[in-house]
Amino acid sequence: MEALTAKSVTKRYTQHTALDDVSISIPEKSIYGLLGPNGAGKTTLIRIINQIIDSDSGEISIFNEKLSPRHIGTIGYLPEERGLYKKLKVGEQLLYLAQLKGMTKAEALDKLKVWLTKFEIKDWWNKKVEDLSKGMAQKVQFVSTVLHEPKLIILDEPFSGFDPINAQLITNEILELRDKGSTIIFSTHRMETVEALCDHIALINKSKKILEGPKKQIKDAYKTNTFLVEHIGNNFVLPADKYDLMEQHKLEDNYYHSTLRIRGVGSPNQLIRDLVEKTEVHSFVEKIPTMSEIFISLVKEDPSL
Amino acid sequence: MNKIWLIMQREFLNRVQKKSFLVATILVPLIFPAVIAVMGFILMKQEKSAGVSVVEVLDESGKMSFENSSKFEFVSVTGTLENAKVTYNESSHFALLYIPAFDLAKPEGMILYSRESPSIRKMGDLENMLEQRIRDLKLEQFNIDKETLKGLKTSVSLKSISLSKSGEEKDSNTGMLYILGFILGVLIYMFVLIYGMQIMLGVIEEKTSKIVEVIVSSVKPFQLMMGKILGIASVGLLQFFIWALLISVLSTAAMSLFGLNMPQQQAMEQVMNQVDDPEMAEAMQSNEKIMNIMKSVNEIPYTYIVFNFAFYFLGGYLLYGALFAAVGSAVDSQQEAQQFTFPITLPLIIAYFGLFMFILNDPDSTASFWFSIIPFTSPVAMVGRLGYNPPLWQLILSQVLLIGGFIFTTWIAGRIYRVGILMHGTKVNYKVLAKWFMMKG
User: Fold this and answer.
1) Does ipTM come in above 0.90?
2) Which residues of chain A neighbour B215 with C-beta distances below 8 Å?
């Protein structure tokens, strides 16, 4: 089942089009990366999913139902611009936000106990948010996002402002939530996060979706048949009609590192055979494009630019 | 609806639990009487310590003579004015009063020389003395003695009774109604401004702390706006009722302190009616003025006024509150808000001036009518007229229009608000606001 599908969603403002005929499909229990440069339209799409603003046209369904105000409790949203009531105490604040999401006070209290213990922030109950450090406030905000056990969690740049230890804590929580059945949408331009966590990806640029699919598939599609080889000596030549030597540099002693691309229909095995005849191979690895490379190349190549 | 209620509760508790609310609620009813008492005390003390001012009198007409009083001592001087000025400057006397020879029919040319400019009060006192003396001289000229004049003096106090259509008679004390209208009008003006500003600051805070995006993912922007407006309204109403309670408790306490509590007063009135002895009656005469005031205080139709006041308070507050919310949503800081707060408070300020200039003095004039009908001014204007018994059709028309008015401003404000709260760093002017208003979804 799809956790969320958007069909031909368009949003226009007087001077520009924020989303132009964008369709995405987010499988249930996936961690879905929504990528794109600043101003591409990610936030607009997220706001439409959160029903903060309406789209001009297009349709959105969530767990096979048409998106409507009763799905507010189904979604948990952590906006990029974090914010809490500064003068309000942590406990009161979390209870209030949970009630706005439709929980009863008793339910919220029960769930809060679990989360605050887990995050070791139980003592903060009576602290005002303005007295917390930035990282502490981030934890509180994360709890408020997931407290009502949303089936769809939308995180906009979730790791900004976290130190590595807390970032790890949040990462583990996200994975655990996914394993328990939640679907997670990441909006980010931090590619390490995408590499590590996402299994599905959509790339939005200039208000259009230019790429979508499982991460593995995308990476396979962008492979260039390039291999990284470590070998001894460089006084050999490979047949130029079969291989391109993209780059070569010397490591210590007589070791060399070469980047080779297979032209035409050659296979990696053939390359290895050709290599071992001429040199001593120490390592042989396929060069898989990073998300960052795909991202940059796609955004740069985008003909609409 | 449930969510508006939640937000309302939160806004209410946030403000009521603050120490500043408690302090303001308890202190304000005490501050006004205290300020009046302190000023009265200072004034009294000043007058006592001021002592006697010595005034040199150079009377070239030879007609004037003054009696020394507790305030002034008069010293006659002779010679030319130039000489008198020189001697006055060498003395430590308060002033030099120069009276040239004058025509009784046209007394002109009198001058008061002094080193410091004299207070209006002292000038007034001296003018009175001169007028008195000239009047006496005129009386002499017409051969009227003072005794005859005294016999001519008549005192009439006009009792004003308002007659209702059903023929019911009610004492009306115009002075009392003026004060009542004044207090109610100013209260509305202050309430709307103070609580309107609170709405605006609350919205700005939510916007700058970025919490608003989280909230509007749970509730509609309109619900958030209404919850805030209504929550603050309930704070205002609570505060108002506490003040009303405190003031009535305090004034009852004060009255009983002066032996004038309500039941006693009524008993006295009964006694007075039965008394035949003219001497007793005269002794009570002095109390009559106070009694009359007390009586008209008692006769104010409290439920009518409290109900209508509450209506105009809420109506005016909702009308302006929505506009304040819209301004708060459009800007990123309080300084930026100033360019918009002035235009929206302008009608309120105009109503406030109208209250003093004609509504209280002439509650049935055309201007008063229009002011109390137009929703932007009616909360202040109509409340000022309440005591004067405005015609029922005017009251109803005014209230219906006010309801329509705040629905209208809330609608406009809601459309600006829903866009404004999500906009950061935009340079906002009226054109931008209009664009937001027109924006769909």
Assistant:
1) no
2) 97, 100
Tokens of B26: 């308890």
Q: Are B385 and B184 in contact (CB under 8 A)?
A: no
Q: HSE of B440 in the Cβ direction (CA atoms, 13 Å)?
A: 8
**Highest mean pLDDT of the ranges B43-52, B53-62, B255-264:** B53-62
Task: Report the gap between the CA of A72 and the closest CA in chain B (Å).
Answer: 6
Q: What is the pTM of this model?
A: 0.74
B209 — contact with chain A (CB < 8 Å)? yes
Would A38 be classed as within a structural domain? Answer: yes
Q: Does the structural domain B53-147 have CATH classification 1.10.1740.10?
A: no
Residue at A114 is within a domain: yes
Inter-chain residue contact B218 with A101, CB threshold 8 Å = yes
Per the CB < 8 Å rule, is B10 touching A96? yes
Residue A63, domain CATH? 3.40.50.300
Both tokens of A71, joined, read 């799905």
Domain boundaries, position A257: 224-287
The secondary structure element, H or E, covering residue B247 is: helix B221-257
Q: Are residues A176 and A27 in the same domain?
A: yes
Domains identified in chain A, total number: 2
Digit-coded pLDDT (tens) for B222-239? 999 999 999 999 998 898
Q: What is the CA radius of gyration of chain B?
A: 31
Report whether pLDDT(B304) > 70. yes
Chain A residue numbers with beta carbons less than 8 Å from the beta carbon of B216 are: 52
Residue B16 contacts A where some CB pair is shorter than 8 Å:
no
